[in-house]
Protein backbone atom coordinates (compact mmCIF):
# COMPACT_ATOMS: atom_id res chain seq x y z
CA UNK A 1 0.00 0.00 0.00
CA UNK A 2 1.03 3.61 -0.55
CA UNK A 3 3.21 5.15 2.17
CA UNK A 4 3.50 8.78 1.07
CA UNK A 5 1.40 11.29 -0.83
CA UNK A 6 2.14 11.19 -4.58
CA UNK A 7 2.19 14.12 -7.05
CA UNK A 8 -1.19 13.13 -8.50
CA UNK A 9 -2.76 13.28 -5.04
CA UNK A 10 -1.28 16.74 -4.43
CA UNK A 11 -2.74 17.84 -7.75
CA UNK A 12 -6.04 16.31 -6.63
CA UNK A 13 -5.90 18.50 -3.51
CA UNK A 14 -5.91 21.65 -5.64
CA UNK A 15 -9.56 20.94 -6.41
CA UNK A 16 -10.26 20.74 -2.69
CA UNK A 17 -8.60 24.16 -2.29
CA UNK A 18 -11.19 25.61 -4.65
CA UNK A 19 -14.04 23.84 -2.84
CA UNK A 20 -12.85 25.25 0.49
CA UNK A 21 -12.79 28.75 -1.01
CA UNK A 22 -16.35 28.32 -2.29
CA UNK A 23 -17.59 27.07 1.09
CA UNK A 24 -15.90 29.97 2.88
CA UNK A 25 -17.71 32.38 0.58
CA UNK A 26 -20.99 30.70 1.50
CA UNK A 27 -20.64 31.72 5.16
CA UNK A 28 -18.85 35.06 4.74
CA UNK A 29 -22.14 36.95 4.40
CA UNK A 30 -24.85 34.67 5.83
CA UNK A 31 -28.47 35.79 5.75
CA UNK A 32 -29.49 33.60 8.65
CA UNK A 33 -28.98 30.26 10.35
CA UNK A 34 -30.30 28.37 7.31
CA UNK A 35 -27.21 29.50 5.37
CA UNK A 36 -25.04 27.91 8.05
CA UNK A 37 -27.13 24.74 7.93
CA UNK A 38 -26.78 24.50 4.14
CA UNK A 39 -23.05 25.16 4.39
CA UNK A 40 -22.67 22.50 7.09
CA UNK A 41 -24.67 19.87 5.18
CA UNK A 42 -22.79 20.65 1.98
CA UNK A 43 -19.47 20.49 3.78
CA UNK A 44 -20.30 17.11 5.34
CA UNK A 45 -21.22 15.56 2.00
CA UNK A 46 -18.11 17.04 0.35
CA UNK A 47 -15.66 15.96 3.04
CA UNK A 48 -17.28 12.52 3.36
CA UNK A 49 -16.52 11.72 -0.27
CA UNK A 50 -13.16 13.47 -0.23
CA UNK A 51 -12.18 11.38 2.78
CA UNK A 52 -13.45 8.39 0.82
CA UNK A 53 -10.83 9.15 -1.82
CA UNK A 54 -8.15 9.39 0.88
CA UNK A 55 -9.07 5.83 1.87
CA UNK A 56 -9.04 4.87 -1.80
CA UNK A 57 -5.61 6.27 -2.65
CA UNK A 58 -4.20 4.54 0.43
CA UNK A 59 -5.18 1.25 -1.28
CA UNK A 60 -4.52 2.20 -4.91
CA UNK A 61 -1.03 1.80 -6.42
CA UNK A 62 -1.79 4.20 -9.32
CA UNK A 63 0.48 2.20 -11.64
CA UNK A 64 -2.23 1.69 -14.26
CA UNK A 65 -2.90 4.60 -16.61
CA UNK A 66 -6.62 3.92 -16.34
CA UNK A 67 -6.50 4.59 -12.57
CA UNK A 68 -4.82 7.93 -13.21
CA UNK A 69 -7.41 9.00 -15.78
CA UNK A 70 -10.32 7.88 -13.60
CA UNK A 71 -8.92 9.89 -10.67
CA UNK A 72 -8.63 12.86 -13.03
CA UNK A 73 -12.30 12.36 -13.94
CA UNK A 74 -13.12 12.35 -10.22
CA UNK A 75 -11.32 15.72 -9.97
CA UNK A 76 -13.71 17.03 -12.61
CA UNK A 77 -16.63 15.79 -10.51
CA UNK A 78 -15.33 17.53 -7.40
CA UNK A 79 -14.67 20.71 -9.38
CA UNK A 80 -18.24 20.76 -10.70
CA UNK A 81 -19.46 20.25 -7.13
CA UNK A 82 -17.38 23.23 -6.03
CA UNK A 83 -18.81 25.38 -8.83
CA UNK A 84 -22.32 24.67 -7.57
CA UNK A 85 -21.64 25.51 -3.92
CA UNK A 86 -22.33 29.29 -3.99
CA UNK A 87 -25.90 28.73 -5.25
CA UNK A 88 -26.45 25.20 -4.00
CA UNK A 89 -29.90 26.08 -2.64
CA UNK A 90 -30.93 27.11 -6.16
CA UNK A 91 -29.34 26.81 -9.60
CA UNK A 92 -26.13 25.28 -8.24
CA UNK A 93 -27.95 22.34 -6.66
CA UNK A 94 -28.13 20.24 -9.82
CA UNK A 95 -24.45 20.65 -10.88
CA UNK A 96 -23.40 19.80 -7.33
CA UNK A 97 -25.62 16.70 -7.27
CA UNK A 98 -24.45 15.46 -10.69
CA UNK A 99 -20.81 15.98 -9.75
CA UNK A 100 -21.44 14.15 -6.48
CA UNK A 101 -23.06 11.21 -8.26
CA UNK A 102 -20.10 10.94 -10.64
CA UNK A 103 -17.67 10.97 -7.73
CA UNK A 104 -19.62 8.27 -5.86
CA UNK A 105 -19.74 5.95 -8.89
CA UNK A 106 -16.02 6.38 -9.62
CA UNK A 107 -15.18 5.81 -5.95
CA UNK A 108 -17.04 2.49 -5.90
CA UNK A 109 -15.55 1.33 -9.19
CA UNK A 110 -11.94 2.24 -8.34
CA UNK A 111 -12.18 0.63 -4.91
CA UNK A 112 -13.50 -2.59 -6.45
CA UNK A 113 -10.29 -2.78 -8.53
CA UNK A 114 -7.89 -2.64 -5.57
CA UNK A 115 -5.87 -5.70 -4.56
CA UNK A 116 -6.78 -5.55 -0.85
CA UNK A 117 -9.75 -6.60 1.29
CA UNK A 118 -11.09 -3.09 0.66
CA UNK A 119 -12.22 -4.25 -2.79
CA UNK A 120 -14.98 -6.22 -1.06
CA UNK A 121 -15.50 -3.91 1.91
CA UNK A 122 -16.54 -1.06 -0.40
CA UNK A 123 -19.77 -2.87 -1.22
CA UNK A 124 -20.76 -2.55 2.44
CA UNK A 125 -20.71 1.25 2.29
CA UNK A 126 -21.55 1.76 -1.41
CA UNK A 127 -25.37 1.53 -0.98
CA UNK A 128 -25.26 4.29 1.66
CA UNK A 129 -23.12 6.55 -0.53
CA UNK A 130 -25.32 5.95 -3.56
CA UNK A 131 -28.58 6.52 -1.67
CA UNK A 132 -27.16 9.74 -0.19
CA UNK A 133 -26.23 10.92 -3.70
CA UNK A 134 -29.78 10.21 -4.90
CA UNK A 135 -31.25 12.28 -2.05
CA UNK A 136 -28.98 15.21 -2.92
CA UNK A 137 -30.05 14.87 -6.56
CA UNK A 138 -33.75 14.90 -5.64
CA UNK A 139 -33.14 17.92 -3.37
CA UNK A 140 -31.95 19.88 -6.41
CA UNK A 141 -35.46 19.74 -7.89
CA UNK A 142 -37.46 20.84 -4.84
CA UNK A 143 -37.49 23.79 -2.45
CA UNK A 144 -38.76 24.63 0.99
CA UNK A 145 -39.17 21.93 3.61
CA UNK A 146 -38.74 19.10 1.11
CA UNK A 147 -35.29 20.42 0.18
CA UNK A 148 -34.14 20.30 3.80
CA UNK A 149 -35.71 16.91 4.51
CA UNK A 150 -33.89 15.36 1.55
CA UNK A 151 -30.57 16.91 2.54
CA UNK A 152 -30.94 15.76 6.15
CA UNK A 153 -31.86 12.30 4.92
CA UNK A 154 -28.76 12.26 2.70
CA UNK A 155 -26.42 13.11 5.57
CA UNK A 156 -28.31 10.91 8.03
CA UNK A 157 -27.78 7.95 5.71
CA UNK A 158 -24.01 8.45 5.87
CA UNK A 159 -24.15 8.58 9.66
CA UNK A 160 -26.09 5.30 9.70
CA UNK A 161 -23.25 3.70 7.73
CA UNK A 162 -20.94 4.71 10.58
CA UNK A 163 -23.26 3.36 13.26
CA UNK A 164 -23.40 0.05 11.42
CA UNK A 165 -19.57 -0.08 11.37
CA UNK A 166 -19.28 -0.25 7.60
CA UNK A 167 -15.63 0.78 7.85
CA UNK A 168 -14.72 -2.74 8.98
CA UNK A 169 -12.49 -4.79 6.67
CA UNK A 170 -11.10 -1.66 5.01
CA UNK A 171 -7.31 -1.45 4.96
CA UNK A 172 -5.07 1.60 4.78
CA UNK A 173 -1.52 2.86 5.14
CA UNK A 174 -1.37 4.71 8.47
CA UNK A 175 1.50 7.00 7.43
CA UNK A 176 -0.20 7.92 4.16
CA UNK A 177 -3.58 8.43 5.82
CA UNK A 178 -2.17 10.71 8.53
CA UNK A 179 -0.14 12.72 6.02
CA UNK A 180 -3.13 13.28 3.73
CA UNK A 181 -5.28 14.57 6.60
CA UNK A 182 -2.48 16.89 7.66
CA UNK A 183 -2.45 18.25 4.12
CA UNK A 184 -6.19 18.98 4.40
CA UNK A 185 -5.51 21.08 7.51
CA UNK A 186 -2.72 22.91 5.63
CA UNK A 187 -5.14 23.60 2.76
CA UNK A 188 -7.74 25.03 5.13
CA UNK A 189 -5.14 27.18 6.90
CA UNK A 190 -3.94 28.35 3.51
CA UNK A 191 -7.48 29.60 2.90
CA UNK A 192 -7.18 31.81 6.01
CA UNK A 193 -3.99 33.33 4.60
CA UNK A 194 -5.68 33.85 1.23
CA UNK A 195 -8.67 35.41 3.01
CA UNK A 196 -6.37 38.02 4.54
CA UNK A 197 -4.81 38.73 1.16
CA UNK A 198 -8.11 38.92 -0.71
CA UNK A 199 -9.67 41.07 2.00
CA UNK A 200 -6.71 43.48 1.96
CA UNK A 201 -6.72 43.86 -1.83
CA UNK A 202 -7.34 47.49 -2.77
CA UNK A 203 -7.04 48.75 0.82
CA UNK A 204 -4.53 51.39 1.85
CA UNK A 205 -1.64 49.82 3.74
CA UNK A 206 -1.76 51.52 7.14
CA UNK A 207 -0.22 50.58 10.50
CA UNK A 208 -3.66 49.39 11.65
CA UNK A 209 -4.08 47.16 8.58
CA UNK A 210 -0.57 45.78 9.07
CA UNK A 211 -1.34 45.02 12.71
CA UNK A 212 -4.56 43.23 11.73
CA UNK A 213 -2.74 41.12 9.14
CA UNK A 214 0.00 40.30 11.63
CA UNK A 215 -2.51 39.15 14.23
CA UNK A 216 -4.41 37.18 11.62
CA UNK A 217 -1.25 35.35 10.55
CA UNK A 218 -0.34 34.71 14.20
CA UNK A 219 -3.79 33.21 14.75
CA UNK A 220 -3.37 30.93 11.72
CA UNK A 221 0.11 30.01 12.96
CA UNK A 222 -1.27 29.18 16.39
CA UNK A 223 -3.85 26.82 14.85
CA UNK A 224 -1.06 25.26 12.80
CA UNK A 225 1.05 24.63 15.90
CA UNK A 226 -1.92 23.26 17.83
CA UNK A 227 -2.35 20.57 15.19
CA UNK A 228 1.20 19.92 13.97
CA UNK A 229 2.93 20.02 17.36
CA UNK A 230 4.38 16.88 19.00
CA UNK A 231 0.93 15.34 19.53
CA UNK A 232 0.45 14.99 15.76
CA UNK A 233 3.22 12.39 15.47
CA UNK A 234 1.96 10.59 18.57
CA UNK A 235 -1.47 10.28 16.98
CA UNK A 236 0.07 8.93 13.77
CA UNK A 237 2.11 6.41 15.79
CA UNK A 238 -1.06 5.25 17.57
CA UNK A 239 -2.76 4.70 14.19
CA UNK A 240 0.24 2.69 13.00
CA UNK A 241 0.12 0.48 16.10
CA UNK A 242 -3.55 -0.39 15.63
CA UNK A 243 -4.44 -3.36 13.47
CA UNK A 244 -7.41 -4.55 11.44
CA UNK A 245 -10.83 -3.25 12.40
CA UNK A 246 -9.43 -1.20 15.28
CA UNK A 247 -7.24 0.73 12.86
CA UNK A 248 -10.21 1.30 10.55
CA UNK A 249 -12.28 2.57 13.49
CA UNK A 250 -9.53 4.98 14.59
CA UNK A 251 -9.13 6.18 11.01
CA UNK A 252 -12.85 6.88 10.59
CA UNK A 253 -13.58 8.37 14.01
CA UNK A 254 -10.17 9.72 14.99
CA UNK A 255 -9.24 11.21 11.63
CA UNK A 256 -12.31 11.56 9.40
CA UNK A 257 -14.85 12.72 11.96
CA UNK A 258 -12.59 14.73 14.25
CA UNK A 259 -11.11 16.63 11.31
CA UNK A 260 -14.55 17.75 10.14
CA UNK A 261 -15.10 20.34 12.92
CA UNK A 262 -11.48 21.42 12.65
CA UNK A 263 -11.77 22.08 8.92
CA UNK A 264 -15.16 23.78 9.14
CA UNK A 265 -13.92 25.85 12.08
CA UNK A 266 -10.93 27.10 10.10
CA UNK A 267 -13.28 28.05 7.24
CA UNK A 268 -15.41 30.09 9.64
CA UNK A 269 -12.32 31.88 10.95
CA UNK A 270 -11.22 32.59 7.36
CA UNK A 271 -14.64 34.06 6.55
CA UNK A 272 -14.40 36.35 9.58
CA UNK A 273 -10.89 37.55 8.69
CA UNK A 274 -11.77 38.29 5.08
CA UNK A 275 -14.75 40.48 6.01
CA UNK A 276 -13.45 42.11 9.21
CA UNK A 277 -10.21 43.32 7.62
CA UNK A 278 -12.21 46.09 5.90
CA UNK A 279 -13.10 47.57 9.30
CA UNK A 280 -10.41 46.31 11.71
CA UNK A 281 -11.20 48.88 14.39
CA UNK A 282 -14.97 48.88 13.94
CA UNK A 283 -17.65 46.96 15.79
CA UNK A 284 -17.91 43.38 14.57
CA UNK A 285 -21.20 42.26 13.08
CA UNK A 286 -23.00 39.34 14.68
CA UNK A 287 -22.03 37.10 11.75
CA UNK A 288 -18.33 37.97 11.95
CA UNK A 289 -18.24 37.58 15.72
CA UNK A 290 -19.95 34.20 15.40
CA UNK A 291 -17.63 33.07 12.60
CA UNK A 292 -14.50 33.96 14.57
CA UNK A 293 -15.54 32.69 18.01
CA UNK A 294 -17.59 29.76 16.73
CA UNK A 295 -14.87 28.75 14.30
CA UNK A 296 -12.21 28.65 17.02
CA UNK A 297 -14.55 26.67 19.27
CA UNK A 298 -15.22 24.09 16.55
CA UNK A 299 -11.52 23.76 15.77
CA UNK A 300 -10.53 23.08 19.36
CA UNK A 301 -13.45 20.72 19.96
CA UNK A 302 -12.33 18.75 16.91
CA UNK A 303 -8.72 18.81 18.07
CA UNK A 304 -9.71 17.58 21.52
CA UNK A 305 -11.78 14.80 19.91
CA UNK A 306 -8.80 13.88 17.71
CA UNK A 307 -6.44 13.60 20.68
CA UNK A 308 -8.93 11.73 22.86
CA UNK A 309 -9.78 9.11 20.23
CA UNK A 310 -6.13 8.53 19.38
CA UNK A 311 -5.20 8.30 23.06
CA UNK A 312 -2.97 11.39 23.04
CA UNK A 313 -2.85 13.25 26.35
From TrEMBL:
Residues annotated as transmembrane: 12-30, 36-57, 69-88, 94-112, 119-139, 145-163, 183-203, 209-228, 257-277, 289-310
Positions in coiled-coil regions: none
Keyword Membrane: yes
Pfam families: LtrA
Keyword Cytoplasm included in the entry's annotation: no
Entries under InterPro entries matching the protein: Low_temperature_requirement_A
Superkingdom, taxonomy of origin: Bacteria
PANTHER family per the UniProt record, alphabetical: BLL5714 PROTEIN
Protein name: Low temperature requirement protein LtrA
Organism, as annotated: Deinococcus xinjiangensis
Lineage of producing organism: Bacteria, Thermotogati, Deinococcota, Deinococci, Deinococcales
